[in-house]
Amino acid sequence: MKIRRFFKIQTLNIDKARKLLIAVNFIEIFTIIMLWIYYKSNIIGELSERKANIVGYLVILFSAIIIINVIISVRNIWVISISKKEVEIQKANIQRINQLNNTLRGQRHDFLNNLQVVYSLIQMGEFEDSKEYIEEVYKDIKKVSKILRTSNAAINALIQAKIVDAEEKNINMSLKISSRLDYIKNRSWEICRILSNLLDNAIYELNNCDIDNKSITLEIYEELSWYIFNVKNTGPKIDEKILNRIFEPSFTTKGSKGQGMGLAIVKEIIENQKGTIVVRSDNEGTSFKFKIPINFEVEQ
Length: 300
Known about the structure:
Blueprint: H1 2-46, H2 49-123, H3 127-147, H4 153-168, E1 172-177, H5 188-207, E2 215-223, E3 226-233, H6 240-245, H7 262-272, E4 276-282, E5 285-293
Parallel strand pairs: 1-2
Antiparallel strand pairs: 2-3, 3-5, 4-5
Helix pairs in contact: 1-2, 2-3, 2-4, 4-5, 5-7
């Protein structure tokens, strides 16, 4: 409850600050225009040439100060907008972490009950049923243990949320994670934003195509000084013309349902971190593979 209230307050303050800065900018720009209109229409005719020049210099100086202030304010508005996005993504990360924690608590809570069921089945001689029951419980535990292979709680929670989303749409999502991401240079919210976009796109494409084998594979591993992430899906081949434009801002294949900014943002974040992303598509499916440098100076 306290977490929700905190983020509600933060979002409200950010919105108010942005609106206030925009309003102040409009007032300052309007002030510049009115000063010049008044100066040109009245002052020159009423004052001597020397005084008119002095007033003119003051108007220019005042206008320059206002223009500099407007530029600074525009930058601040941009920073505030980025901060708002960070808060929203962090809020989503916390919600996912809470969901993952609830899953783990549920498994721990049910563990004794599961043991009792297996014990009872064995006592009754129902060995085949007990075997099937253990296999189902093991699959559930194994699935969560794969998610927890990284040391980053936000990334673990995001993967868990996307697995649930995929399963609800009858899409199988498998994990191949061999890195704990201990020295990740990026902030968690940036990595989550990248993976969220790529996984959401894969789920969307598979959910809207007519094929039998609908599956997504997420790979996370290390190579020398790089972390490698690979999101593969078994969807239909992407046309070469679309593939060449896929990272362009505002380009989308989702029609009215898409804004075309997801992959453009993904590419921007990766390149800002000195990384690269490559997309490949053929008759077997599509993969988005990106790498970011490992920051070995990060304290553990």
